[in-house]
Design brief:
Number of strands: 15
Number of domains: 2
CATH class of the largest domain: Alpha Beta
CATH topology of the largest domain: Rossmann fold
Oligomer: single chain
Largest sheet: 9 strands, mixed
Shape: elongated
Order of helices and strands: EHEEHEHHEHEEEEEHEHEHHEHEHHHHE
CATH superfamily of the largest domain: HUPs
Radius of gyration: 26 Å
Bound molecules: adenosine-5'-triphosphate, magnesium ion
Helix content: 40-55%
Number of helices: 14
Length: about 400
């Protein structure tokens, strides 16, 4: 029978909380597999077993789905067979044929957790290896750098064969770290920041600042499209679209130009914190990376976060753009992020922004705008768009 063997990562380090983490993760896997057919999902030690229970189950889609679940570090499409050496050899040669045909070299690694099985691991490996060599005469054994490894696992309920596992999402199960509000723009960075923190177990609310007509409906749609991609990983998310035009115009009219961006970002943070509190979130996430732009210098981030009381998480802070792009490709947001729609941050950008701002001067620059009332109105008029898988 074809099935999925998935390895839990850090969940297993959770000591007394392990059961809770594990059951949360299993619940996520079961819920996400439901549209793909009936699957039996259970965990033994640090392995999750996903077994289709009907012919019509979509196993390829299930594999993709399980690979995105936070808490799973690696996974394999495996084949369960009887705990009998002939059945194991047959399963390896027949079921793993596509991978073995494409390889030039291989090795077999066996693990016997059921100690009642009469053969020891090295004996299993050598018998399965001999069977594979006979069935695929073009193959050679290479124990150091094989193209493929055939894994044989003899466990309590069954024996399993599979080839090399692929990496899973890693991290900690959804929701085990609480909730946070992520500032989601249409760029490359913030979706990556969202995914990285969701992967550490945070449930997310997204906050998007929308400056119609300076930014278009299409720019907003792009953010919703990014949220849809993120939801493949996080399960669901609400995007809170903040009407931000009046605030930006007020800043333009009342503040010295070189402080536009800083004042705007402080306003974003205050609004984000209000939305966060209304939605039981206890942290704010941004896609900032040290030194990337004028508003992301050490001092600029200092004056920006000075307006909020909750922790501000910036998972990309020490990453280079190339590394961020790599993650964005991996999670599938890159192609959407690079579509050329404007962001509210590019509206009214100063020619010479302050890169080493002093807090007192920023406060002085900000005061004439009297933003508190406009911010309250913005929070009251947020549009909530719920996105699910
Ligand atoms: P990104 O690629 O995420 O847009 P960026 O490199 O363009 O980031 P900035 O535009 O300075 O950088 O924005 C820094 C962070 O502020 C973003 O990562 C995001 O978290 C937040 N942010 C910027 N613009 C918006 C917006 N319109 N709505 C919500 N959050 C925003
Ligand atoms: Mg941006």
């Amino acid at each position: 029978m074809e099935m999925i063997l998935a390895k839990m990562g850090e969940v297993v380090l959770k000591g007394g909380n392990r059961r809770q983490f594990e059951s949360k993760m299993l619940r996520v896997i079961r819920a996400r597999l439901r549209p793909l057919g009936r699957f039996n999902v259970y965990a033994i030690q640090s392995t999750v077993y996903v077994e289709p229970e009907e012919e019509t189950c979509d196993c390829a889609a299930a594999f993709d789905t399980v690979g995105k679940v936070f808490g799973i570090v690696s996974l394999s499409r495996a084949y369960a067979c009887e705990k009998d050496i002939d059945a194991i050899c047959r399963a390896a040669c027949e079921r793993l044929a596509p991978e073995l045909s494409a390889a030039k070299t291989f090795k077999v690694e066996s693990k016997r957790s059921d100690k009642r099985f009469p053969l020891k691991s090295p004996e299993i490996s050598s018998l399965v290896g001999a069977a594979v060599l006979e069935a695929f005469p073009h193959l050679r054994v290479d124990v150091y750098e094989p193209d493929r490894t055939v894994y044989v696992e003899v466990r309590d309920l069954s024996a399993y064969v599979h080839t090399d596992p692929v990496p899973g999402a890693g991290g900690l199960p959804q929701g085990t770290a609480g909730r946070a509000a992520v500032l989601l723009s249409g760029g490359i960075d913030s979706p990556v920041a969202a995914w990285m923190m969701a992967r550490r177990g945070l449930e997310l609310e997204a906050v998007h600042f929308f400056s119609y007509p300076y930014t278009s409906e299409r720019a907003k749609q792009k953010v919703l499209d990014l949220a849809k991609i993120l939801v493949r990983h996080t399960g669901y998310m609400t995007v809170h679209v903040v009407p931000f035009t009046a605030i930006q115009e007020r800043i333009r009219d009342c503040c010295p130009e070189e402080y536009f961006t800083l004042v705007m970002r402080r306003s974003m943070m205050r609004i984000a914190e209000a939305i966060a509190k209304n939605n039981a979130c206890s942290a704010i996430i941004t896609g900032e990376s040290l030194g990337q732009v004028a508003s992301q210098t050490t001092l600029a981030m200092g004056v920006t976060e000075a307006v909020v009381g909750m922790p501000v998480f910036r998972p990309l802070i020490g990453m280079d753009k190339e590394e961020i792009v790599k993650v964005s490709r991996r999670i599938g947001t890159y192609d959407t992020s690079i579509l050329p729609y404007e962001d509210c941050c590019t509206v009214f950008t100063p020619k010479h922004p302050r890169t080493r701002p002093k807090l007192e001067l920023v406060e002085e620059a900000e005061a004439p705008a009297e933003l508190a009332e406009l911010e309250r109105i913005a929070v009251e008029n947020v549009e909530e768009i719920r996105i699910s898988r």
